[in-house]
Amino acid sequence: MKDFAGTPGTLTALALRISQCIFAAGSITAMATTTNFFNFTAFCYLIASMGLQVIWSFGLALIDAYALMKKKVLHNSILVSLFVVGDWVTALLSLAAASASAGITVLLFHDIGPCTYLSECEKYQMSVALAFLSWISIAISSLIMLWLLAAG
């Protein structure tokens, strides 16, 4: 397997995993600090999806940090295959949750009229924006993992 930026055990991979974890945790925090998020199924799905994202990204960040400490690049094809499947599953779940939540947010802001609970609507928007940022970083990771698997 080739060694390029973003492969497991590199500083770039660690930075991507940490950014995924931070954006997903921020999305959860913004949504969970509202009082009415549980009234919308899409928002509950966003919290569940971002929770899975935090667990997955944090676990892989620990693996990347350990590999960096040991100065090893992880090129085991079975391990990379596991990373590919996990990244693609979490990427698809994150995109679906962020898109569904964005749809509800647009509905609340523009289609129904002025949002009656304005401070919560701003938190909804922040949560959705952070979810999309998390999805962008997981999409980059999943493409790198797929590329690495194909190159191997």
UniProtKB/TrEMBL annotation:
<dbReference type="GO" id="GO:0005886">
    <property type="term" value="C:plasma membrane"/>
</dbReference>
<feature type="domain" description="Casparian strip membrane protein">
    <location>
        <begin position="7"/>
        <end position="136"/>
    </location>
</feature>
<dbReference type="InterPro" id="IPR006702">
    <property type="entry name" value="CASP_dom"/>
</dbReference>
<dbReference type="Pfam" id="PF04535">
    <property type="entry name" value="CASP_dom"/>
</dbReference>
<comment type="subunit">
    <text>Homodimer and heterodimers.</text>
</comment>
<keyword id="KW-0472">Membrane</keyword>
<keyword id="KW-0812">Transmembrane</keyword>
<feature type="transmembrane region" description="Helical">
    <location>
        <begin position="40"/>
        <end position="66"/>
    </location>
</feature>
<dbReference type="InterPro" id="IPR045009">
    <property type="entry name" value="CASPL-5"/>
</dbReference>
<feature type="transmembrane region" description="Helical">
    <location>
        <begin position="78"/>
        <end position="109"/>
    </location>
</feature>
<keyword id="KW-1133">Transmembrane helix</keyword>
<feature type="transmembrane region" description="Helical">
    <location>
        <begin position="129"/>
        <end position="150"/>
    </location>
</feature>
<comment type="similarity">
    <text>Belongs to the Casparian strip membrane proteins (CASP) family.</text>
</comment>
<keyword id="KW-1003">Cell membrane</keyword>
<protein>
    <recommendedName>
        <fullName>CASP-like protein</fullName>
    </recommendedName>
</protein>
